[in-house]
Amino acid sequence: YAEAFRRTAPAWVHTPSGAPFNDWLGVRYWATHRELLAAYAPVCDDGPWATWRRMEARDDPPPEPLLPVRTARAGPGWEWVIDVPVAGGRVGDEVMVECSLTYGRTEKVSRLGDLLCRWVVTPADPRSGPEFALDPGAVGVPTRFPLVGRRGDPLVIRLAPHGLGSRTALDLGTVSATTLPAPWLARWNLLMQADTASMPRRSRAVAPD
Hints:
By secondary structure, this protein is an alpha+beta fold. The protein is built from five helices and eleven strands. A hairpin with a 2-residue loop joins strand 2 (40-46) and strand 3 (49-54). Helix 1 runs parallel beside helix 3 (30-39).
């Protein structure tokens, strides 16, 4: 879907405004929403829909250095800490971060095993974004997702198994993070139409790019 969206490049786009499932849409279809933030600007937010118009010039993020990430085991799962820089703003300013992770298998797991045990990514601060379940079919494929942090404050994210299946079947690979352009944050907040702290926290699978 994301590739079709990029290829067709519609002049106008409508998105649901203030819908209770916007957090799910934002994470589940991050590749599509990433294209929306890079190529479209909101022009109207009226009732249940927001209207976006394709910009003459794209607002793609410039090459940014990767942020420092520290990864450690935490029980049967992992925890990683992203150091959000102060440079480019003031301490406490909100900043949008894109995180990317890859993972592999340590043992063969049946489809039933994947259903019984889901690996869930959970930001320590729920205001950073909703928790979600990894796609068991995306082994070795980078899974990218957005986070909202504050300059000078570390972002802490946890990955842990939930359920009754094998808890040793997943191996965390590489984890990286980078900041996104400041205008993206305002567009993202419009898209979400809510403080993430008030969003229901549910486990949802993320589609790989």
